[in-house]
Write a structure and sequence with these properties.
Number of helices of chain B: 23
CATH superfamily of the largest domain in chain B: Thiamin diphosphate (ThDP)-binding fold, Pyr/PP domains
CATH architecture of the largest domain in chain B: 3-Layer(aba) Sandwich
CATH superfamily of the largest domain in chain A: ACT domain
Number of helices of chain A: 4
Order of helices and strands of chain A: EHEEHEEHEEHEEE
Shape of chain B: globular
Number of strands of chain B: 20
Largest sheet of chain A: 5 strands, antiparallel
Structural class of chain B: alpha/beta
Strand order of the largest sheet of chain A: 4-1-3-2-10
Distance between the termini of chain B: 76 Å
Oligomer: heterodimer
Radius of gyration of chain A: 19 Å
Largest sheet of chain B: 6 strands, parallel
Strand order of the largest sheet of chain B: 3-2-4-5-7-6
Helix content of chain B: 25-40%
């Protein structure tokens, strides 16, 4: 079973390294890890997907909680969440085949964001199953290149995952070195 | 507000943390801090290798319960400290390591003596810092000490670039409470009904065993564990690092469990119907194979670190938190028990397989390590701080030296670091200058760090060193004998004449080959005001018994074949 963990971490140099290093040395099997900004300065948000058949979600959560730079961590698997994956897919296609690709994209509410003589780039957003479905349909056409962000997730409703730790003053000694908005798949 | 340089702020903060002794080695990138040290009431112990500095800080912390501090320069100094930090990490020892770093302008340029120290030490520290602004230094040092001490203790490293040591800033010591980003995640809430449930499980148990680990000592829960054990008449098995947490000669104490624990101790664990794991982490050296580990027992895990719950062994009831606090809540809820039948069974088992099986054995073929350890115990009346290295002698120490008091055995448990003993003993002596400190080491491990003999002489401290020289890397040889058809690959080891080595350092050296000479030499050495090195030339192919082979079940122990019942 897949588990989705959402972590808020300090946006400081080396924090992504600490998280990645933890997974590596504890031999935790991570399906995807995404990092990006939040609405709060000096706070980044990570969405981590693990396959709990081979890695205990509870142990991952407990280990992350021990990292000093982690502000909040929650397993949102059992909650009502919106989860999204973004993909850019470059497909080999000549002028004659473009219409078919455009049609497929429309069915998936995807967009064609770049057109060249012999290729197009499709941008698709949705849950992972939807992206997987689109990819399977495009594959016979000839996928030249693809990038996916990995899952990001948010709990529905008005419950907020925020830096609720009112005490901490995030005295960042420099920030911005943490890789931003990067999807690191299969760490 | 006065302006101070980073180097001064470092010592201002260390002094306020109660530090009066540091173990270190100067070098280019830490020079500003060494220069500033002269103005402060800090005793600096010059080591001979930075690994020694980190082991000394570790030994200091283990003997005192205070944070041990080591200092070194960038690059090779920091990498030399890594083994000591890893040792402290595995055994949850509060250490703060200060390292110089090349200037912030050249970080990342492969400058002279540059190493990515926070990168290298990331997996072997509880946390680490690279301080790039002098304004952050004071707060960082406070946090580092807090993290080292707080919760499950551990080593913390602070890497300070040279220009940050030189830069000046207005200094006012921060006094506001420390709040770590993750503090809310570490708050432990244990519902009161968990304690009621624990009390019910304890009331229902007929064959309970307490598994007592290092957490007893780290939490200072000796009295609470004693109260619990005496009230419920529960037998206590100790881990290696739990030794001293409960008096070895107390009637409820079974002794050490695990790979070289007593046969009856391991059988008690295997037959138990309730295990009370107190501040221990079910390490593979105490469980044997997990498939058959204590199959009939319910398990209650008293543990401060949530990542240890269900890591190796699935437990029925976790009681998260500081052991002393947990037992303070639990003890009033438990009822007195006797467990007569269980004790009757255990006493018979103890007599059938005594752990100190060669105590009265007159060895026909030379001096036995077991007897040397027993004689050191007798001579010191069990009251010395004994610091061991790693290997056979370490196991004989815990079998034949009975520790009744906390913090009197200092040993590398989790990492099993050879070369630990001598430097850790130096640290322990600085922490407890009035205590008698003994090193018990093998000929292999002692040669790894024996350069620190010079540190003993330069610091004019008294440490007694007993080297049990069997001419082999003994524990590895034992595994080769048992599991590799006695093919002794790379285990015979040449040693120098240790007495002459000691003599070269100006330390009296002795060689002992006969049991009759042991006591007189021990008496002489103990009476002398200075340090001493005694080489005991012991039987070459003795083995530590009993033994659980790696990967076997806890009760499947190799026993010594025959012990003549002489005397």
């Amino acid at each position: 079973m897949k588990h989705t963990l959402v972590a808020l971490v300090q946006d400081k140099p080396g924090v992504l390294n600490r998280v990645a290093s933890l997974f590596r040395r504890r031999a935790f099997n991570i399906e995807s890890l995404t990092v990006g900004h939040t609405d709060q300065p000096h706070v980044s948000r990570m969405t981590i997907v693990i396959d709990s058949d081979n890695t205990s979600a509870q142990l991952v959560e407990a280990n992350l909680a021990k990292l000093v730079n982690v502000i909040d961590i929650q397993d949102v698997t059992q909650q009502e969440t919106i989860s999204r994956d973004l993909a850019l897919i470059k497909v080999r296609v000549d002028a004659a085949g473009r219409a078919e690709i455009a049609q497929l994209a429309e069915i998936f509410r995807a967009k064609i964001v770049d057109v060249a003589n012999d290729s197009v780039v499709v941008e698709a957003t949705g849950d992972e199953d939807k992206i997987d479905g689109l990819v399977e349909l495009l594959r016979p056409k000839g996928i030249l290149e693809m990038v996916r962000t990995g899952r990001i997730a948010m709990v529905r409703g008005n419950q907020a995952r925020k830096n609720t730790n009112g005490h901490y003053n995030g005295n960042g000694n420099g920030n911005g070195h943490v890789a931003r908005d990067v999807g690191v798949s299969s760490v | 507000m006065p302006k101070l340089a980073g180097a001064q702020i470092l010592w201002e903060c260390l002094v306020r943390e109660g530090v009066d002794t540091v173990f270190g080695y100067p070098g280019g990138a830490i020079l500003p801090s060494y220069d500033a040290m002269l103005q402060y009431p800090i005793h600096h112990v010059l080591v001979r290798h930075e690994q020694g500095a980190s082991h000394m800080a570790d030994g200091y912390a283990r003997a005192s319960g205070r944070v041990g501090v080591c200092v070194g320069t960038s690059g090779p100094a920091a990498t030399n400290m890594v083994t000591g930090l890893a040792t402290a990490m595995m055994d949850s020892i509060p250490v703060v390591a200060i390292t110089g770093q090349v200037g912030t302008k050249v970080i990342g340029s492969d400058a002279f003596q540059e190493t990515d120290v926070t990168g290298v030490t990331l997996p072997v520290t509880k946390h680490n810092y690279l301080v790039t602004h002098v304004e952050d230094l004071a707060e960082t040092i406070r946090e580092a000490f807090y993290i080292a001490r707080h919760g499950r203790p551990g080593p913390v490293l602070i890497d300070i670039p040279k220009d940050v040591q030189l830069a000046q800033t207005e200094f006012e010591y921060p006094t506001h409470p420390i709040h770590l980003p993750n503090e809310r995640l570490l708050e432990k809430y244990v519902p009161q009904e968990y304690f009621a449930r624990a009390a019910e499980m304890i009331a229902a148990a007929e064959r309970p065993v307490i598994l007592a680990g290092h957490g007893i000592l780290l939490s200072g829960a000796m009295d609470e564990v004693m109260e619990f054990a005496e009230k419920t008449n529960t037998p206590i098995a100790l881990t290696l690092l739990g030794i001293g947490g409960f008096p070895a000669e107390h009637p409820l104490c079974l002794g050490m469990m695990g790979m070289h624990g007593g046969v009856y101790v391991n059988e008690a664990i295997q037959n138990a119907d309730l295990l009370l794991a107190m501040g221990m982490r079910f390490d593979d050296r105490v469980t044997g194979t997990l498939k058959t580990y204590s199959p009939h027992s319910k398990k209650i895990h008293f543990e401060i670190d949530p990542t240890e719950i269900n890591k190796n062994v699935k437990v029925d009831l976790p009681l998260l938190g500081d052991l002393k606090e947990s037992l303070t809540k639990l003890n009033p809820l438990v009822r007195a028990k006797r467990h007569d039948a269980w004790w009757e069974h255990l006493r018979r088992a103890m007599q059938a397989d005594p752990i100190r099986d060669v105590l009265d054995w007159e060895s026909p073929d030379g001096l036995m390590s077991e007897h040397v350890v027993h004689d050191i115990w007798t001579a010191t009346q069990g009251d010395a701080i004994v610091v061991t290295d790693v290997g056979q002698h370490q196991m004989w120490e815990v079998q034949y030296y009975l520790h009744n008091k906390p913090h009197t055995l200092i040993t590398s448990g989790g990492l099993g670091t050879m070369g630990f003993a001598l430097p850790a003993a130096i640290g322990a002596k600085f922490a407890q200058p009035d205590k008698e400190v003994w090193v018990i080491a093998g000929d292999g491990g002692f040669q790894m760090t024996m350069a620190e003999l010079a540190t003993i002489v330069q610091e004019k401290i008294k440490i007694n060193v007993a080297i049990l020289n069997n001419g082999y890397l003994g524990m590895v040889r034992q595994w080769q004998e048992f599991f590799y058809d006695a093919r002794y690959c790379a285990t015979p080891i040449f040693s120098p004449d240790f007495a002459k080595v000691a003599d070269a350092y100006g330390i009296p050296g002795y060689v002992v080959e006969n049991r009759d000479d042991v006591m007189p030499i021990l008496d002489e050495v103990r009476a002398s005001p200075g340090p001493a090195v005694i080489e005991f030339r012991v039987k070459m192919e003795d083995a530590v018994y009993p033994m659980v082979p790696a990967g076997a079940s806890l009760h499947e122990m190799i026993k010594r074949e025959k012990v003549p019942q002489s005397v």
